[in-house]
Predict the structure.
Amino acid sequence: MSLKTFTEPLKSGLLLIDKPKDFSSHDIIAVCRRELKTKKIGHSGTLDPMATGLLILLVGRKATKQQPSFLQLSKRYRATLSLGQETDSWDAYGTLTQEQPIPPLTQHQVEVATQKLSGLIEQPIPFFSAKRIQGKHMYELARKGKEIERKYNQVSVEWAQVTLNSPTTIEFTVDCSCGTYVRSLGYLLARALGTVGHLTQLRREKIGSYEVTHALDGNLLKGIGPALYQYVKEL
């Protein structure tokens, strides 16, 4: 049956999804629209295809009206940074652009570097991002090989945990404001340590007070049908 037949969902509220790897956030939203038979679904911030973790969907008119406030919520991410190689997207899905030697590092050096990247910082926005320039997504321009002026935004970052796991790998957890690109934090951290790097893993654990541990596995969405409504939490 066409979605045109269903303009209002059975219940309005929040649907917490644990997004699997290799799916875009819009893939998940499209599946939920089909299963719930409604077009009225918004979100509280998307995730890159490489990333996993919490995606909050706003189902129904009452919930989607609150999208602006949900987009402003702080977030917590856990990530793995691989040192020595940089990609054009600053993550594992990009094309290798350069390699640099990795200096001998200590846990203390890594912690000092993150302290300098704490609080209010100016971060570079990845060229492969959904940020718009004159109505076009930056990733659309980057894929066409267009020359793009580097853009920056100010964000708030607190490093909750950082561990030098090996001479080439750092794991970290950050609490950050909306608009933060964790790929950019990885880029900045690698540069602060005298080398280059890119993210190989990224997981969103929290949005505001909502945690991924309470989310539905996104792999279970397809074919679930109206039963999905039992996971919609009314506001």
Observations:
- Residues 3-72+209-233 form a domain with the Pseudouridine synthase fold (CATH 3.30.2350.10).
- The CA atoms of residues 11 and 229 lie 7 Å apart.
- The mean pLDDT is 90.
